Amino acid sequence: MDEGTELSLTIAQIVQRLKGSHLHSQIERQAKECLHHPEIKLESLKEDVRSFLKTSGWERKLQNAVYRELHVHLPPSHPAAPPEHVKEPLAYMRKAQTSWEKRVLKSLNSMSTELGVPLARMRPAVEQKELTNKWNEMGTDEPDLSRFRPVYAPKDFLEVLISLRNPNHDSSEDVSTRSHWGLIQVPLNVRDIPQLRQVYSELNLTTGQLGIDDHAHIRPVVVDQDSAAAQQYSRQGCPTGLRADLWALILNSTNQPPDVMHYEQLKAGVIQHDLLVDNLIYKDVKLTASNDDYYFVFEDFLYQILLCFSRDTAVLEHFKYNSATPPKSYIQGKVGDEECAVVYPPNGVIPFHGFSMYVAPLCFLYNEPSMLYSVFREMYIRYFFRLHSISSSPSGIVSLCLQFERLLQTHLPQLFYHLRQIGAQPLRIAFKWMVRAFSGYLSTDQLLLLWDRILGYDSLEVVAVLAAAVFAFRAENLMEVTSLASAEAVLADLSTLKVMPLIQIFLFATAI
User: Fold this and answer.
1) How far apart are CA 24 and CA 44, in angstroms?
2) Is the peptide bond before 345 cis (omega within 30 degrees of 0)?
3) pLDDT (tens digit, 9 = 90+) per residue, 292-330?
4) Mean pLDDT of all residues belonging to the chain
5) What is the rounded (10 degree) CA torsion for 161, 166, 170, 175?
6) Do the Cβ atoms of 333 and 265 come closer than 8 Å?
7) How far apart are CA 307 and CA 132, in angstroms?
8) Please, are residues 237 and 216 in contact by the beta-carbon 8 Å criterion?
9) pLDDT by residue (tens digit) across 118-139?
10) CA-CA distance, 112 to 97, in Å (whole number)?
11) Helix, strand, coil % in the chain, rounded to nearest 5
């Protein structure tokens, strides 16, 4: 497609998506109301209405909504392209993702059968009342979760990624034998250091970074309510006091009455129905955040947000551009009958071990549950889903793993070779950091500085760069280890690390 066709297709798609939105009806109402203003003249009606919408801030809100749509949805594809090709162009990636989904769903269904726990049930009135009363203190509840186990852990997912192969690629043609050193054996394009320097030019050693240089200039982006400006600004870090507002602005997340009402509806859904995945959420929070020095205080918040998230069918929207497909279950035991198929859980996302850590850091920024929910959902459908689905996206977990291995192989070949020789493949250690975007591994203030850059650059690539930078920082100690266990011990505690100097030094002080 030529650029003109692509642009007009994009415009048509965005107009179509915004037409049914709450913002559209608000702007329409404002435009009608302003017709009663004396300054609106009949002979210049169009210009006057447009001028009113601009001065009253509605034009900016519309711009932010358009900006959000451009970030979230895929660019228009060729009209003849099949829908699955649009979601993921590589057939072998699609096949691997489908097979992984079947495995996860089978694990969930087996658990339901073995434990005799239905996938979903209506809560009895007494139970509904009880849950309503203790909604804000669910952490005090101690249900017996001993029979439940996570559907999968990151290490299970890593094994699937390691086995990925492109059937059309002859690896013997690879120029460098280095390509065989790593665990990821798929030919995807990832950036090298010179390319990364270009993309992340704002992180160079001479540019002020918040979190390092306290005098970094604070611009009035929050006052302007401009999503694009806020995103550009957060590339150099957000001031602690403004971070919550800036992130919400970048993500175009609001806490308007419709948002609050949506959250309340989801809460009502949690109170009415009990899902098997609720137990997985409880178990995950107990195993991760509840044992974390930074996050245990947010236990109640985590239950509220995650239980509501599991029921939110609006999350299904992201499967239009996600390589994954929402899992389905069959009501009344009619397996295979498509008319009895329902998406399960309702949001199409089966939580895994560590899933609650995507929410935990956000609890430091937002104390209003509906706002916290709105920001988390947007973070998930823009970024976090990519960390647990198989795709060829540059921000997808496969590309991040490959990027991490390539950076280490190129810049620390001796270290990479040494660790490989002693059976301590670097990716086996770094994978758990990357799949959680480092949540639960860094101190919270440092994690938020990292997530500033994910939002600022609209990419998870910086996660792979940080993982490589951590190995570079501990290289001397790692050269002396003789086993996987001792390598893991050297990298066990990342809580004292300063994220930005590590990334800056690795990117801009590494000799090429």
Assistant:
1) 23
2) yes
3) 888 989 999 999 999 999 999 999 999 988 999 999 887
4) 86
5) -50
6) no
7) 13
8) yes
9) 999 999 999 999 999 999 988 7
10) 23
11) 65, 0, 35
